[in-house]
Amino acid sequence: MNINFKNKKVLIRVDFNVPLDSDYNIKDDTRMRAALPTIKKVIDNGGKAILMSHLGRPQKKLKEDGSIDVEKFTTKHLVNHLAQLTSAAVKFSSDCIGESAQQMADNLNEGEILLLENTRFYKEEKKGDKAFAKQLSELGEVYINDAFGTAHRAHASTTTVAQFYEKENKCFGYLMEKELENASRVLNNPQRPLTAIVGGAKVSDKILLLEKLIDLADNILIGGGMAYTFAKAQGGRIGKSLLEEDRLETALEILKTAKAKNTNIYLPEDSVIADAFAADANTNISASNAIEGNWMGLDIGPKAISKFSDVLDHSKTILWNGPMGVFEMEAFATGTKSIAQAVAAATQKGAFSLIGGGDSVAAINQCGLADQVSYVSTGGGAMLEFLEGKELPGVKAMRS
Ligand code: AMP
Q1: Per-residue pLDDT tens for 59-81?
Q2: What domains sit in the chain, N to C, each tagged with a CATH number?
């Protein structure tokens, strides 16, 4: 961000893909607020900020006649709130490319903002189309990518557009920088022991992450629905718990590789079990490998909480991706809450903790502990891919 923005038209890719209610009010503005430091820097330096983003999936939800549902997906819904957040004049262009957009960009005054219409109104956006990206690039003399949440997509506004700028005229925004810096603290030379907490529903979603972690981490704590595929693979009885039959071999393979590489994998010794997948089901505690009949494991149990917390207490770097149970239901949220508390306590003692991935972010927010961990990532899929060791197209494009 050490480009001089004074009097320059600065095209900024932000991630304003915020949830809207049925009256198009913003339900959660976290993503907009996350981009503010970059936007403010540009306008405070006398730049002209031209913002582009996608909002929802307009191409997937076309109207009956095959046209775009503009009313539903227009970024115009965000204009007033953006003006409030930035205390700046915000103009809106009902097309993200073309003559009218160009004119509005050219007529901006220093310190003003132009919000472009949803980039995904064009099919070319997701295709990473070069001609479309070139048209976007003509709107700004400088390009900033601050959309970490979409950095794993090779789309026109996140990736292709960067090729139309010389190195000295493009850079990452503050959010993007922060995300990459924090993730790198886990990936490159982390302080040890490094403990990764991996939860969530499916083994299949987390295989690449687990494979990477076996090489990287000292300890891996496995919770959530995926733990039962591991329990079953080791010959346990898991009742009606979540099971991915076709991943039993994979689970065994992961355990074997971890052993060979001296990485400790901890599976939950016990579970909170329920006789139905329901908030008001009857519950009990059981060994995770001796769940009978119609019962299912929906949270880690007290022994598992105690063991996991102890490992976290001795950790110097912590990465958390995925909840320990069905935390959306109060009866099965204790494991996730307790782990959140253990992560906060370890952070208090000096550990570096990164919460990366959609549902663990929701969980840490739900526990009110987001400000007691080192960093909470804003990019679910992008963070997961980065941690898996993949090069994100949006990042690569800025470096070439
Ligand atoms: P993921 O998106 O893969 O991180 O998975 C998150 C989802 O996994 C949440 O909606 C949880 O409710 C769900 N989940 C966590 N633990 C379990 C479990 N033991 N059984 C079924 N679903 C679970």
Answers
A1: 999 999 999 999 999 999 999 99
A2: 9-172 (3.40.50.1260), 180-387 (3.40.50.1260)
